[in-house]
Prior knowledge:
Blueprint: H1 23-34, E1 58-64, H2 67-83, E2 93-94, E3 100-107, H3 109-115, H4 119-131, E4 133-140, E5 143-149, H5 153-156, H6 159-163, E6 166-171, E7 174-179, E8 184-191, E9 196-198, E10 201-208, H7 216-227, E11 237-240, H8 243-273, H9 277-300, H10 306-335, H11 344-366, H12 373-411, H13 428-443, H14 463-472, H15 479-489
Antiparallel strand pairs: 1-10, 1-11, 2-10, 3-8, 4-5, 6-7, 9-10
Amino acid sequence: GTPHKALTTVTFVDYEFRKGIDTRAIMRVISDELIGKYPGVQLSVEKDNMGPPAGKAINIEISGQDFEELLYLSDSMMTFIDMANIEGVEGLKSNLTVGKPELLVTIDREKARRYGLSTMQIASTIRTSLFGKEISDFKVGEDEYPIQLRLQEKYRYNVPALMNQKIIFNEDGKNIGVPISAVADFTYSSTYGSVRRKNMDRVITVFSNVIEGYNSTEINNLIAERLSNFELPEGYTYSFTGEQQEQQESMAFLGRAMLIALALILLILVTQFNSVIRPAIILASILFSTIGVFGGIATFKMDFVVVMTGIGIISLAGIVVNNAIVLVDYIELLKARKRKELGLEEADLEGTKRIYPKWLMLEYSDVPVPSNPEALQLAISKGLFTLEDAIISAEEDEAFVLEIEEEEESIGPHKKLSPPVKLEDLELEEITDKRKKRREKEEETVNKPESTEDFHYIPVKSVGSFVSDSLKTIDISKEQKIKAVIGKLK
Length: 490
């Protein structure tokens, strides 16, 4: 670190042990008690950055050619903003360090030429005296230690001793030493800490933090409004950078990412449903989810973090689209039933009532609080697998009901079969168990004939083919044999 700077870190206990005390309120109290109370001391109170490095909340860059004019404009701008009395500004500072002391060594080239010395030899001697030079290595076993040659500490900070340091050079086979003072003079001066450039222009930055509890975007908008009356000479400009610039770039990137995601989702949905209206209905759910995000931020008074909130909205779009696909597809399945004609409103209500528990399973699995990444992966994968298995089972049972109804219509209205089992009367475990038993029956090949000559078992490939093939092998005028088929099916 540097000797003129110090850092004090305060670590708070967990929130559950703080009895509801907010860290932002404590930071604001510290700022009010310390900042501006000690002359010559610049204090800053801020929290650790949990994400990638970000610029200052208030960051104004003034650019131009003449450095003295830039220095005057930066001081004038800080005074102008301070006089505006904008609340929330912690304290404006400049990145330019003024009055940094330095020792200027001016080489007399005419004298140096007489001794045959170059400026590089003189500068190298001064640097070696102050910072040292590695001349050899000291080896102990397999370890090597560099040997540095430089002046002792009591001479390094003694200017006359430094200027009397001899420059050694070879002339006619003899080593000759010339003091630095014989070919150079020194003067005391002061200069700026650094000079920054941007697009070939000199730049001075005026920056500040924002006191906890205030919105940095609103404060920057107020400063921009006040600076509209601040006149700059021709050839000099200012711009807001730092955190504001990074937010704008992040919003532009996330906006493009959101559009690309929506386009890809729409393309997949149009291909899946072979329609434009249904994908449009599904994508409309993203609008309502986005409204919910901003509503939740406003309700709980949470900070709006552009990057994290944007990524959350894009991720949430995938979840709500998944839910909407399940709902729309299930409603279309209900409307396709032959035994029960459903209108649009009735199908929507019944489909939503049936799918709602499955939605909850998905939401509980997608919003966990994991103690490690593996827990998050496990929760999401298991939740999605459970939902997928439930939906596939529901779709297969609905198809089973439709096949039976088609067979009833082929027989005729005067011959009614036993009513099929309704899906709503079955729980998820019953559906899964029914599905497993049906698969076991499909794998069996029954060769034992029945006592009735017109009716016998056949190899079963599926529930629908079982009903269809059995009906083809019996006399449809014998109602009791039809009921026997349905009894076997149940």
